[in-house]
Amino acid sequence: MSLSASLLLMLSCASEDYVRLYHTEEHAPSLTWAQVESMDFMGPTLIDGGVNFTVYSENAERIELMLFEDPESALPTRQIP
Questions:
Q1: pLDDT per position as a tens digit, 10-64
Q2: Is residue 32 part of a domain?
Q3: Which domain holds residue 68?
Q4: Taking Cα atoms as reference points, which of 14, 12, 15, 44 lies closest to residue 28?
Q5: Over the chain, what HEC string results?
Q6: Would residue 26 be called left, alpha or beta, if left means φ above 0 and alpha means ψ between -120 and 50 degrees?
Q7: Per the domain annotation, does 69 fall within a domain?
Q8: Structural domain includes residue 27
Q9: Is residue 17 part of a domain?
Q10: Number of structural domains, the chain?
């Protein structure tokens, strides 16, 4: 590979700030664990360039997030276990 091709490849790589689709974290980076535990942000919250979904259950064994593009649709567009 030539030097110019290598340089082009390095310059064309995505930066660390690109949007990550379907990325999950334990909590939104701008929230502290104390804020999460206070449950002030229940449900969907627009934060950190995305959506933070906070739910609570003492007995849940799993949760599924179902996203719909059309409110009339019987099936979700995306389902996240």
A1: 444 555 655 566 667 777 778 888 887 887 878 888 887 778 778 888 898 888 8
A2: no
A3: 41-81
A4: 44
A5: CCHHHHHHHHHHCCCCCCCCCCCCCCCCCCCCHHHHHCCCCCEEEEECCEEEEECCCCCCCCCCEEECCCCCCCCCCEEEC
A6: alpha
A7: yes
A8: no
A9: no
A10: 1
